[in-house]
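Retry 2 of 3 after timeout on previous attempt. Resubmitting structure tokens to design endpoint.
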């Protein structure tokens, strides 16, 4: 059973400057809710209540968001505005939050390794908050948890992307074992389109087995001199222990301005406006 979900949240969010100069990119809102809250809600829907967040300098707003604000709650108590805090209060009451800091930004693999002290020796999920996913009836992470329960190995969420955009992603190649489920045999970090093994790209949802920490420690820096999670996963994949799951649902790349606007419009039209 997956009990913990790790949120790497130490990045600078440079694509959204100047908005992210003093505000964490994870706190950018889709209408009236921060990106990271959507991610935590997805984790809770998958039965996960241990929320581990890797933060960095200037990220205090994340910790404050997942905490009680006594003064604010006192001011709006008994008013129509009180119900707006109900979802976040439910999260606070349901989940346990733990935090650690990533002192240097050395890639996603390094961020995940930094979170080892919060995870321990158990399988865990990873959500990248700037990948906002919508799916019904099961959220994407719940779909992946069910797959992990069946196969008991690492699982990465994948989707088809335009061939000319493979340079933005980790890209996989593998053998389809059942519909939408691939036993991965190759993973390449941000390949040139002419060198990509497929157009199946890894997005920001993972379930990892705890041996990934030892593998990360032994993995040399990869592309851009950073510790890449795809390089570590390739070690597992060489032993047939990584699945790529073409999830059912839709993903918005909220790390880009275009994707963020699309996600905002989706949330406004489908949830807020109603």
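Retry 2 succeeded. Sequence:
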């Amino acid at each position: 059973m997956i009990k913990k979900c790790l949120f790497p949240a130490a990045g600078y969010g440079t694509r959204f400057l100047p908005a992210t100069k003093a505000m964490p990119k994870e706190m950018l809102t889709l209408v009236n809710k921060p990106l990271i809250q959507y991610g935590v809600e997805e984790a809770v829907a998958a039965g996960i209540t241990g929320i581990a967040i890797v933060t960095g300098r200037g990220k205090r707003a994340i910790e404050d968001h997942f905490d009680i604000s006594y003064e604010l709650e006192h001011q709006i108590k008994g008013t129509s505005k009180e119900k707006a805090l109900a979802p976040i209060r439910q999260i606070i009451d349901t989940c346990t939050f733990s935090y650690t800091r990533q002192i240097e930004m050395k890639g996603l693999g390094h961020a995940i390794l930094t979170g080892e002290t919060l995870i321990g020796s158990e399988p865990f999920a990873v959500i990248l908050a700037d990948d906002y996913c919508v799916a019904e009836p099961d959220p994407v992470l719940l779909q992946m948890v069910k797959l992990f329960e069946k196969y008991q190995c690492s699982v990465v969420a994948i989707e088809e992307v335009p061939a000319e955009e493979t340079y933005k992603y980790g890209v996989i190649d593998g053998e389809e074992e059942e519909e939408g489920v691939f036993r991965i045999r190759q993973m390449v970090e941000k390949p040139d389109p002419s060198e990509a093994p497929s157009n199946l790209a890894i997005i920001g949802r993972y379930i990892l087995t705890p041996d990934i920490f030892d593998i990360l420690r032994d993995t040399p820096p990869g592309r851009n001199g950073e510790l890449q999670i795809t390089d570590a996963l390739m070690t597992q994949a060489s032993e047939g222990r990584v699945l790529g799951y073409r999830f059912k649902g839709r993903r918005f790349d909220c790390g880009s301005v275009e994707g963020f606007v699309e996600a905002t419009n989706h949330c406004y039209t489908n949830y807020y406006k109603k």
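Attempt log closed. The chain has a mean pLDDT of 92.
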